[in-house]
Amino acid sequence: MTPPDDLDALVNELNAGAPRPRPVARDSRAAAGDDVQTARLRGWLVEVIERSGSDLLLVAGAPPSIRVNGIVTPLDDAPLGSEEIEDAIAPALPPHARKQYRDVGIADGSFRTPDIGRFRINLHHERGRSAAAIRRLPSTVPRFASLNLPPNIEALTRLSRGLVLVGGPTGSGKTTTLAALVNEINHRDARHIITIEDPIEYEHPHRRCLIEQVEIGIDAPDFPTALRAALRQAPDVIVVGEMRDPETMQIAVAAGETGHLVFSSLHTTDASTTVGRIADSFPLERQNTIRQELAMALAAVMTQTLIPKSGGGMIPAAELLMVGYGARTHIRKNALQHLHQEITITRKQGSFTLEESLTELVKRDLIDRKEALARAGHPEEFERLLG
After folding, report:
1. Backbone phi, then psi, for 24, in 5-degree steps?
2. What is the largest CA-CA distance in the chain?
């Protein structure tokens, strides 16, 4: 295994146009070892593509596994050791991510091979051993109509200002939805869009819009720095891949309140938990102030989840709250339990509940009734709607 420091030096030399030194035979053996490990990673990724998988999962003590349509299946390989995983994955990370892995034991980065595609890598530790999760990234940005989301959600692209939050559990398609919404704006309007991501997952071409994509660790050191800079770059639309810390949340809320259209995502399950997550991220003495600002800035809250589709594959069910006077009042008073009722009150503005979305999917025979009931936050409402 070539040490990460040597890899960083090699990258710097190649960027500077300097020849690679080969002073001793040990370097050649290390390079050959890297080639073997790269070939091993490529072999696994080819399996992901051939099986139409979404993720490659590597855990010490278990064989490599692939997720296909939500089901994790082991490959016909021997169980992996911790060093095998690190040797195979670390060289694929960009230099800043390798340094982060050395420093804190966890890192994210993107990896591209011209003949296979792009992948998002998370290299981390579990039980003191190396592990990795590698997500396949699509080569093209989806159009909104291809996602099978309720059509009301497309209206989010026509908002002129405000903060739009997209919630959902890990792997529920939040990033894909955000990319599709940006793509709709890109095809329709002449605007300046800045995305801030870690790492960049969908690469947007310039169509009617001018799009800048900022990658954390490469183009900016962190989300707050990138977001503050974006506000000085005359954007019409800002996409924050994920709001992970109070400082990013504060800046995003302020941007939505002062005339920008801001999209971002959170790991939440419904409108009330999405709004609550923002305020709860701040110290107690600041939470009331944040609620007041959030009530003014928030334009919409959407949440989604993926459900096994009848006949195979996955399909999203969603919920949408278009924020009006009633919702703003509940947010200010921290009466978030009333936001679900607010969805039903604002149907004419485009809002709909998760239960309504699930009911529609069941009636169209796209998902099983039991699967839908298991995901309904208000089962009695779902049963009533389905009759």
Report:
1. -135, 165
2. 77
CA atoms within 13 A on the CB side of 371: 18
Tokens read off for 42: 């490529």
Which residues pair with residue 317 across a beta bridge?
305
Please report, in tens digits, the pLDDT of each residue of the chain (387 residues total). Answer: 444 444 444 334 434 443 333 333 333 333 434 455 578 899 999 999 999 999 999 999 999 999 998 899 999 999 999 999 999 999 999 998 999 999 999 999 888 887 889 999 999 999 999 999 999 988 899 999 999 999 999 999 999 999 999 999 988 999 999 999 999 999 999 999 999 998 898 999 999 999 999 999 899 999 999 999 999 999 999 999 999 999 999 999 999 999 999 999 999 999 999 999 999 999 999 999 999 999 999 999 999 999 999 998 899 999 999 999 999 999 999 999 999 999 999 999 999 999 999 999 999 999 999 999 999 999 999 999 998
- Residue of 39, 6, 35 lying closest to 20 (CA atoms): 6
Q: In the 3-class helix/strand/coil scheme, how is 27-38 assigned residue by residue? A: HHHHHHHHHHHH
SS3 121: strand
